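I hope you will forgive my troubling you with a question about protein structure. You will find the record immediately after this paragraph.
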Amino acid sequence: MPATESKTSPQAIIDTAERLFGDHGVLGVSIRQIGQEAKMANNSAINYHFGDRAGLVRAIWAHRLPVLDQMRTVLLQDLEQQGMTQDRHGVLRALMLPTYLYVDEDGVHRYAAFFRSVMRWREGRPLRAQEMHASPASERALGLVQALAPDLPHQLMIERLVYASGVFHDMIIDRDHAIAEDHEVAPEDAFLHEAIDMMVAMIFRPAP
């Protein structure tokens, strides 16, 4: 699903920050550079609209999460209608697929790269936890995942989800890079099946 928007000043900042954070890391790019690449004449525009770096990350989520959650809601409804809420692969697919489907006008997974960078940032995970209210379908999917492994301690499950999600996003980013460099890549369906299977293996293995 292409992420195409009108380029008002705040929107131009959001799109530029998402791209630069994804390419260089949340701390790898200055606020000034984001403003310059967004073609902001006023150097204080980002501070005016978003406050600080964390505020800019929150703004990107506020803009993207409703669309992603709507997609995830449809996937969960389909899963429930098919009676597959006990299927590990299906539940994880419903949780993760919207991130894969959300691409820019060039078919590049800018949001996936942004999300991965934020999760590597020390403040990123607490910020995402604070924004879970904007993702009720994500909370529903996470609840289904946890219900499929009732014997796993909650904290261990969360850690496995975080690291398995990181692998999933890394695979998406690597595939984008390979396509950009004209390397051969696996067909999309095979790629997604392998990525989700890897998550299943990481998350649901027995507790030590």
